[in-house]
Amino acid sequence: MSGKVKLKRFGCVNCGSHFEVHPPDDLHTTASRIEKECEQSVKMDYECKSCGKINTIHWCRRSRYPDWYA
Ligand SMILES: [Zn+2]
């Protein structure tokens, strides 16, 4: 619960396999599939290990939402 690295778990949009994503830095710690949920975000692509599908995750800058927002 108190680790510095906050892993997020997403399901592959193609096959449903779960994969873990890591925040790119300390400022962008809220992950979303929807870019418009963020005022500023870092786009990162993750390749599913099961099917090779690229899953795009947007990391939101932590300014408007507290940590518990997910
Ligand atoms: Zn997949």
Written overview of the protein:
- There is one protein chain.
- The protein is mostly beta strands and 70 residues long.
- It has one domain.
- Helices cover 0% and strands 40% of the residues.
- The protein contains no helices and 5 strands.
- It has strands at residues 8-11, 18-21, 28-32, 41-47, 54-61.
- The strands form 2 sheets. Strands 3-5-4 form a 3-stranded antiparallel sheet, with no helix packed on it. Strands 1-2 form a two-stranded antiparallel sheet.
- A hairpin with a 6-residue loop joins strand 1 and strand 2.
- It is globular and about 35 Å long.
- Bound molecules: zinc ion (ZN).
SSE string: EEEEE
Counted by DSSP, the helix tally is: 0
**How far apart lie the N and C ends?**
15 Å
Bound small molecules, deduplicated? zinc ion
Largest sheet: 3 strands, antiparallel
What does the radius of gyration come to? Answer: 12 Å
- Order of strands, main sheet, comes to 3-5-4
How much helical structure, as a percent, in the residues? under 10%
Structural class: mainly beta
Mean pLDDT: 85
Record field, number of beta strands: 5
Shape: globular
Which blocks of ≥5 consecutive residues have pLDDT under 50? none
β-strand percent reads 35-45%
Query: What's the structural domain tally?
Result: 1
